[in-house]
């Protein structure tokens, strides 16, 4: 790192983190507004989901090739163009006149936003000396992890108090400030070489086809009953073939569009895999907890967002502290502690019931805030620690796209498992509700008497009692399904623990 970068280190940090927060926030801010958008745009439930899917899909496609695009056009120019595209298309999303225009603008917004997080990480790595790398990644983690966590809360507030277009309009003034800061403070590093050679069009095409098919399969699989659908089966085959050919092409090309040879580095590869586990658990919990609070406990959308705030606040408190501890304790100890803390926190969630109070949800989230903070800061630092400076932009793109794709896997699998376990547990519980069950008959008599006292005749009272028991069984089955999926996430954290021994121990290095 040259001394040129150090005088404006604080302003460079503010500049790139502004872009990273904008990009991370827009992965989840639209979710609570989808029902309102559906009515205004005249879309079905399946169609309106593409407003969220299209953004994530284009994020995933652009992330692996940011190194290639940065070397071809200059990283500063590419970053500036990405911020401009994100800002302009945010305005166009708010002005969208129908579903097709909305999806088109969201795709462009995803292309612009997808480059902001990896480039921000690369720039922060370059502008902080080795002893401050943990601190830099603590700042980076605040934006990248808290953005999706705060998105539903901010989106709910804007939608309730203004209207859904404001979840996009809010990006515009911040984006303009980011453009001005980028023009003033961001420069290309001296070691970044500009390449004007032949474009690896075949590799790019295979990547787009493979990753695109995989992402659409993950987003649509649950709604279409997975491999019972010919469409999902076709996507799975396309993704498998496309990604296999893509890997073969990139490993054999002289100048590949995506530098997969970086995966030969043991620390980078194991760190990227742990990042995938982090993506699965983070996105799965962001998906499951609001559903649990709204569907089973009856929380409004905004209140469910507020109920998830303890985790975000805990991350905001712990991440800078963890950044300071990194050079003292080392990566393995911090990541190992984070995996164990998160495993315990999800195990606590797997023991919830329908009678939970606020504090039953509060403390597991605080532990998750600590656990995610421990993992993310140390992992973001150590994963890129063995990568050469000239390859950091490529490596950052790979690292972030794996986390994003695994996050989509986490959402898809958690939705599928919740649905399937609901069916299984509902069936199991109803087996015990028979005319020979003393408990079931007592409940039915009690409920029937209550409805009879309220004015219903005998037959109507019995029917209402049966419906009430069915509702109770459905809610209990759903609760057990959520418990099961939370337990599976806990097991995933514990199973990932051995991967930490493949990482370079920064403390001993």
From TrEMBL:
Keyword Transmembrane helix in record:
yes
Q: Which residues cross the membrane?
A: 12-36, 48-69, 78-97, 103-123, 135-154, 166-186, 198-218, 230-248, 268-293, 305-322, 329-347, 367-386, 398-418, 481-503
Where is it mostly found?
A: membrane
Domain Major facilitator superfamily (MFS) profile: residue ranges: 12-508
Q: Where does the record place a coiled coil?
A: none
Give the InterPro entries listed for this entry. EmrB-like, MFS, MFS_dom, MFS_trans_sf
This entry's Gene Ontology molecular function terms read: transmembrane transporter activity
Keywords, sorted A to Z: Cell membrane, Membrane, Transmembrane, Transmembrane helix, Transport
Report the membrane topology from the UniProt record: Multi-pass membrane protein
UniProt keyword Transport, yes or no: yes
Which subcellular locations apply to this protein? Cell membrane
CC per GO annotation: plasma membrane
PANTHER family for this protein: MAJOR FACILITATOR SUPERFAMILY, MULTIDRUG EXPORT PROTEIN EMRB-RELATED
- Protein name (database record): DHA2 family efflux MFS transporter permease subunit
């Amino acid at each position: 790192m040259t001394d040129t970068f150090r005088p404006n280190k604080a302003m460079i940090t503010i500049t790139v983190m502004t872009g990273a927060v904008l990009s991370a926030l827009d992965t989840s801010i639209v979710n609570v507004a989808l029902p309102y958008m559906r009515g205004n745009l005249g879309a079905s439930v399946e169609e309106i989901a593409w407003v969220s899917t299209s953004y994530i899909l284009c994020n995933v496609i652009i992330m692996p090739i940011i190194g290639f695009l940065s070397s071809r056009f200059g990283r500063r120019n590419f970053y500036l163009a990405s911020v401009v595209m994100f800002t302009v298309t945010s305005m166009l999303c708010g002005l969208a006149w129908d579903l097709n225009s909305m999806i088109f603008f969201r795709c462009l917004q995803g292309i612009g936003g997808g480059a902001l997080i990896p480039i921000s990480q690369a720039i922060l790595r370059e502008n902080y000396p080795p002893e401050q790398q943990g601190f830099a990644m603590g700042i980076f983690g605040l934006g990248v992890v808290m953005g999706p966590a705060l998105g539903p809360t901010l989106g709910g507030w804007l939608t309730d108090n203004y209207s859904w277009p404001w979840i996009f309009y809010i990006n515009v003034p911040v984006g303009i400030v980011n453009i001005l800061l980028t023009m003033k403070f961001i420069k290309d590093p001296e070691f970044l070489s500009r390449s004007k050679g032949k474009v690896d069009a075949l590799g790019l095409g295979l990547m787009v086809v493979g990753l695109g098919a995989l992402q659409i399969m993950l987003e649509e699989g649950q709604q279409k009953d997975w491999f019972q659908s010919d469409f999902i089966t076709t996507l799975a085959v396309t993704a498998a073939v496309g990604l296999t050919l893509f890997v073969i092409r990139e490993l054999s090309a002289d100048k590949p569009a995506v530098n997969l040879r970086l995966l030969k580095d043991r620390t980078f590869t194991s760190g990227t895999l742990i990042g995938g586990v982090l993506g699965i658990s983070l996105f799965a919990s962001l998906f499951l907890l609001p559903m649990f609070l709204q569907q089973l406990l009856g929380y409004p959308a905004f209140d469910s967002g507020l109920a998830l705030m303890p985790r975000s606040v805990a991350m905001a408190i712990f991440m800078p502290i963890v950044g300071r501890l990194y050079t003292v304790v080392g990566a393995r100890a911090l990541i190992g502690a984070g995996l164990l803390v998160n495993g315990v926190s999800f195990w606590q969630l797997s023991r919830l019931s329908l009678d939970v109070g606020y504090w039953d949800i509060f403390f597991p989230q605080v532990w998750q805030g600590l656990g995610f903070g421990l993992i993310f800061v140390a992992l973001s630092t150590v994963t890129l620690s063995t990568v050469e400076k000239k390859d950091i932009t490529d490596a950052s793109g790979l690292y972030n796209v794996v986390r994003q794709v695994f996050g989509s896997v986490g959402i898809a699998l958690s939705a599928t498992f919740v649905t399937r376990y609901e069916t299984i547990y509902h069936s199991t519980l109803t087996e015990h509700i028979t005319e020979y069950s003393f408990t079931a008959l007592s409940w039915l008599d009690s409920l029937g008497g209550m409805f009879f006292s309220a004015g219903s005749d005998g037959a109507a009272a019995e029917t209402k009692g049966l419906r009430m028991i069915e509702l109770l069984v459905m809610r209990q089955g759903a609760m057990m399904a959520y418990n099961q999926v939370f337990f599976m996430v806990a097991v995933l954290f514990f199973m990932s623990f051995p991967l930490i021994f493949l990482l370079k121990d920064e403390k001993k290095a």
